Amino acid sequence: MTRQVAVVTGAAGGFGSAIVKSLLDVGYAVAATDVDAAALEQLGRELGCPDSLRGFVMDVTDSASVDAASAAIVERMGVNITVLVNNAGVIGRGYCTAEKSGELARRVFDVNLNGAFNATAVFSRHMARLKYGRIINIASVAGIWGAAGGSAYAASKAGLIKASESWARELGPLNISVTAIAPGICKTKMLNQFVDRQMVEQSDDAIVKSIVPVGRWGLPEDIAEVVTFLATCKTNYLNATVIPLDGGMRVGTL
Q: Where is the Ketoreductase domain (predicted)?
C-alpha cells in the first residue's frame, strides 16, 4: 500500500493533538478531525503544517457529517485508511439529582459513545476493503470504576469499552483489531472540569503520590505513546484488549 492514513477524532484537544503528532512522527498521513475548525487550523500551525497532515471539520454526533468527512478524506488523502482513533469526548460534570442532568447525560452519551459508533461504522468500511485495520478507542478508568459526579461520563466510557469488545468480535475476521485505552487522571484542560482545581495545582505533591504509584498524573503524550504502539502493532492477535493507563492507580500504593 501507499502511505497509510490514520483518522483521529477530537484531534484538536489535549489527547488528540498529542496523538496526531505521535502518528505523524512514525510515518502516518493523519486526517485530523474535529468539530472546531479554528482549533484545527491552530493545530496545523503548531505542528508546522506538514504535508502529511490534513484537517477536516467533522461532528461525530452527526452521521451525515461523518459521511461527508470520510468522502473528503478519501478525495484528498486516498483510500488507505487503516487506523481510526475514536478520541472525541466530553466530560460533563453533574450529579444525578442536579437540574438538567438528563440533558447533560444525553450530550455526553452522544459525543462519547454514539460518536464512536458513527465513526467506526463509516471508517471500518475502508478497512474491510483493505482486509486490514486498527481501531483504537479512548475510554477511561471511570468506565471501569465509576465516578461520583460523572455518572454519565463513566457510563458512556463503560459502553465504549463493551462496544470495543463487541467490534473486536465482529471485525476480527476481517483482520481489523479493536482495542481500548482507559486513561487515569491526566493533565488536560478537560481535567479542570472534573477535578478540584487545588488538587490539580498540588498534583506533584502528596496527593498524587498517595494514589498513583509512579507519582504523577498522566500526560497526553502517555496516551499518544500507547495509541501509536497499538496502531503500529503488526500482530492482529492483540484484539479486544482494554489497557488501563493509570500509572498503577488501580492497585494503590499499599
A: 4-184
